[in-house]
Automatic annotation (TrEMBL):
GO terms for biological process: gluconeogenesis; glycolytic process. CDD domains: TIM. It comes from the Archaea. The keyword Translocase does not apply. The gene is tpiA. It comes from Sulfodiicoccus acidiphilus. It catalyses: D-glyceraldehyde 3-phosphate = dihydroxyacetone phosphate. Keywords: Cytoplasm, Gluconeogenesis, Glycolysis, Isomerase. The keyword Cytoplasm applies. Substrate binds at N9, F10, K11, I145, G179, A200, S201. The lineage of its organism: Archaea, Thermoproteota, Thermoprotei, Sulfolobales, Sulfolobaceae. GO terms for molecular function: triose-phosphate isomerase activity. Its EC number is 5.3.1.1. This is Triosephosphate isomerase.
Length: 227
């Protein structure tokens, strides 16, 4: 994972693979133009098509801890890697898994050379999450998800305290999400020390998803260039 980064979670806002691919390609153009890393977390059924046609890092939205074998409906790290994913979100507030499973999945992903973005819903969990050794911890207060009220503005202490907490493991990045909607939201998150931002509804519910990502990427670029 290259940071600073924008992680866009498609969730299930778009079920057309053709439309999702168009969005992904337009976001790829933004990433190239501004020199800012953007990763896309897409539904499992879209991973192969999008990863085959877009150079951006493509993540799954979830994986299971099941081993290969008789596990109907499971999505495993091995399956998403074969489909072209470079990593996955884990333990999103909308897709919780047990902590023992989190640790196992992170180890499996690491052995496969894949990224793991471990989601937590409060700053108190950032340090324990970082000690599990994911690529990044994504802290998202669930009450602000999809609200348009940015965690970096409404609850800046969550960001600043999480930045300190993640340092228990110097190799782990800190990503913040929930309500991130504007250039100013991203600037504030970066000023507070975050390594990137995560967003979903602000991008995917927009009439022009790439334009929203461009504002986020400009904020990261401008903060990076600031004296």
């Amino acid at each position: 994972m290259r940071t600073p980064i924008v992680i866009v979670n498609f969730k299930l806002y778009e079920i057309s693979i053709a439309r999702a691919l168009d969005i992904s390609k337009s976001i790829e153009q933004v990433s190239r133009k501004l020199g800012v890393e953007v990763a896309l977390a897409v539904p499992a059924t879209m991973i192969r098509e999008i990863s085959s046609n877009v150079s951006l890092p493509i993540y799954a939205q979830h994986v299971d801890d099941d081993q290969l074998g008789a596990h109907t409906g499971s999505i495993t790290p091995e399956l998403i890697k074969e489909a072209g994913a470079r990593g996955t979100l884990l333990n999103h507030s909308e897709r919780r898994i047990r902590l023992d499973q989190v640790a196992n999945v992170i180890e499996r992903l690491s052995s496969l050379g894949m990224d793991s973005v471990l989601c937590v819903d409060r700053r108190e969990l950032v340090a324990p999450a970082a000690l599990m050794g994911p690529t990044a911890v994504l802290v998202e207060p669930p009450e602000l998800i999809g609200s348009g009220r940015s965690v970096s503005k409404v609850r800046p202490e969550i960001v600043s305290e999480s930045v300190k907490a993640v340092k228990v493991n110097q190799s782990v990045r800190l990503i913040v999400g929930a309500g991130i909607s504007t250039y100013e939201d991203v600037i504030k998150a970066m000023e507070l020390g975050a390594d990137g931002v995560g967003a979903a509804s602000a991008v995917m519910k927009s009439n022009s998803p790439a334009s929203v990502v461009e504002e986020f990427a400009k904020a990261i670029r401008d903060r990076r260039l600031a004296p």
